[in-house]
Amino acid sequence: MAFVISVVNQKGGVGKTTTSVNVAAYLAKAGHKVLLIDLDPQGNASTSLAVDVYDNEARSVYNLLVENLRAVDVIFPSNQENLFVIPSNINLSGASIELVNLPDREFRLSQKLKNVESNFDYIIIDCPPSLGLLTINALVASRYVLIPVQAEYYALEGLGQLVQTIDLVKSYLKEDLHILGAVLTMYDKRNRLSREIRYDLERNFPHRVMETIIPRNVRLSEAPSYSQTIADYDSESPGARAYSWLASEIVSTLTNHPAPEPIAENNKEELRVDVSVDDMPEDSSEEENQV
Which of the two residues, 194 and 54, has the higher pLDDT score? Predict the structure, then answer.
C-alpha cells in the first residue's frame, strides 16, 4: 500500500509545487513507483512534467473528482521513469463549487484512489493555496502531511490555522492522518531572518521540522520553464542536492516512524516571528547559497 502524502500550506509561493514535483522525482529515481497528483488549478506541477494544462478536453483530476472516471483513466506516465501523474487543467478552477452539491464531497479523491494505491509506493498530492474542498479531499485521501514553510517574514502566520484544520480532518474525517513534518524552503543562511524563522519553527514544532533545508536557488525556479525536474535540469545544484536529501529523509522517517507523535496542544497557537525589519541584514549579491 502506498504512502500517501499531501503537500499543504494555504499560503501561496512557499514552494509546495517545487517540493511536490522534486520529491516525487527523487523518489522515482531511487526506484520507487510514484504517483504525483496535481490538485492545484494553476497546474504548475503538470507543466513541470510537460503536461498541457490548457487542453480542457484532456482527462485530468477534474474528471476524477466531478465525473465518474476511474483513477486508472486519468493516470499518465510522465517524462521520467517510475513517475506517473494525474494532471490538472483549467477545468479544475470551478471544481470547488461543483463539489459542494455532490455526495461524499470530502471523500471523492479518497474513494477514487482506493483501487490504485496498491500499484504505487508513494502518492504525492500537490495541494492548492487554500483550505477549501480540494485541500480537504487531499487530506482525507492522505496518511501524511508535509508542510513547506518559506523562510521569510510573515511566512509562519497561518500555520496554526493549518494545524487546526488538520486536527479537524483527523477528528471528523480521517482518524489516521499525521503531520510528517514542516520543511523550510527558500532558506538563505546568510540572512538573520531566515535563521530566526528556523529557530521559531523548531521551537513551536519540536521533533516535527525536517532536518533537510531547501535553499534559495535560481535553478529550482528555472527548471519548470524547461518542463524538467531539478534532478534532470541541474542535478549538481544546491537545490537538487537538498531535494535528494529530503526524499531520502522522508523514506527514512516513514520506514522507521510510520506514525509520528501528535503535536502538543500548547504548540498549536498562531506562530509569529518576533523579529524587527531593522534587524534584517542586507542581502548579499551572491545569487545562490549552499545548504
Answer: 194
